[in-house]
């Protein structure tokens, strides 16, 4: 089965974005799936409204990110890269 998939997202204003994602079956000349979505996205959270035009189904998604991580990642193994503590080393 040969398929063509594509998607585009456009920032409308500030944190508001609109997008389309679609999949098309080239062999049978049929639309497989198309999603339209509207998103309000901030650094720590987002709300996504999505509608599938083929299945006639919609959804609402809420994403919450936590930035209170208190661990120490340590250096990357074997790369010689180390984290910078208290500014840029000279």
If you had to describe this structure to a student in words, what would you say it looks like?
- With 90 residues, this protein is mainly β.
- The chain is 0% helix and 54% strand.
- The protein contains no helices and five strands.
- Strands 1-2-3-4-5 form a five-stranded antiparallel sheet, with no helix packed on it.
- A hairpin with a 2-residue loop joins strand 1 (3-13) and strand 2.
- The chain is elongated and about 60 Å long.
- It comes from Crocosphaera watsonii WH 0402.
- InterPro entries: DUF3769 (IPR022244).
Name the features.
elongated, 0% helix, mainly beta, five-stranded antiparallel beta sheet
The geometry reads as elongated
Number of helices: 0
SSE string, helices as H and strands as E: EEEEE
Query: N-to-C terminal Cα separation, in Å?
Result: 57 Å
Q: Mean pLDDT, nearest integer?
A: 84
Radius of gyration: 21 Å
Q: Indicate the structural class.
A: mainly beta
Major sheet: size, sense and barrel closure?
A: 5 strands, antiparallel
Q: Strand sequence of the main sheet, in spatial order?
A: 1-2-3-4-5
Q: Could you give the count of β-strands?
A: 5
Proportion of strand residues: over 45%
Portion of residues within helices: under 10%
Low-confidence stretches: none
